[in-house]
Amino acid sequence: MDIGIIGLGRMGGNIARRLMEGGHKCVVLDRNPDAVKDVANDGAAPAKDAADMLAKLSSPRAVWLMLPAGEITEKVLIEVAGNSYYKDDIRRARTLREKGIVYIDVGTSGGVWGLERGYCLMIGGEAKAVTHLDPIFACLAPGLGKIERTPGREKRDPRPEHGYVHCGPAGSGHFAKMIHNGMMQAYAEGFDILRNKSSDALPADERFTLDLADLAEVWRRGSVISSWLLDLSAIALAKDSDLKSFTGSVADSGEGRWTVEAAIEEAVPADVLSTALYTRFRSRRDHTFAEKLLSAMRYEFGGHVEQKK
């Protein structure tokens, strides 16, 4: 199957490479010519502009946008991955439908590791179009792998077990991804409590100097809280248990704000997720070890670099 990919940054380029490894043809476009050249050297067909891309794709044409949410995505538009506000997806799908274009939103998790591990995909859009693109989604997703299968799923949709899911209509994919992105705070605060157990403010016999790297490592093995985020925390702490290379100034790319807005609209209590968002705001003023670990996790999974003041 062939597909156009616009946006060859940290994830877009590797999405193209994973698809090509799976036998798909990719036509690529980016405003950075060096990014296009790098992916073209791995087998992609470069496009000079959007018209050239469409001319090189077979009908019905599919184009994957891997661009930041906001003005740049509005200018380019078709199938949108990455992080985008789900209400924008609903509006775009409605507008583009009138022009004969089917719009699909794909919440994509996997960061810079996706080429090797595969991407977790949360998909929103018309079922017929999602089914048509199934070979693309199946190639990008991690597959069954070695994870133990969940009892009771035998008669359910098999796609989630392979790492991708059709969540529902347009907007639902990015809505699911939006919620997914708010779940790092508990790890960060837990490690901060462990680190401060050696505080001089505690009675001497209640102070413990705990090795955070070792605790992260042992929790990876058999613990009920094991996860990839814990794996990434273990990597960061093994490199430097004090995380001295991070200031603790944690950016937010929009999903946290949108999640809290959704909770308000639905009248759903979201104490922890709301606090996590406000913690990111506070991190740009006062920094704790928790914020350093959040920065470290974001760097490990997505290559996100702290913003300089």
Biggest sheet architecture: 8 strands, mixed
The value of Rg in angstroms is 21 Å
Q: In CATH terms, what is the fold-level topology of the largest domain?
A: Rossmann fold
What share of the residues lie within helices?
40-55%
User: What is the number of domains?
Assistant: 2
CATH architecture of the largest domain: 3-Layer(aba) Sandwich
Mean pLDDT: 86
- CATH superfamily membership of the largest domain: NAD(P)-binding Rossmann-like Domain
Which percent range describes the beta-strand content? Answer: 5-15%
Shape: globular
Helix vs. strand class: alpha/beta
Strand count: 8
CATH class of the largest domain: Alpha Beta
Order of helices and strands: EHEHEHEHEHEHEHHEHHHHHHH
DSSP summary: helix tally: 15
Question: pLDDT under 50 segments (min length 5)?
Answer: none
C-alpha end-to-end distance = 45 Å
Strand order of the largest sheet: 3-2-1-4-5-6-7-8
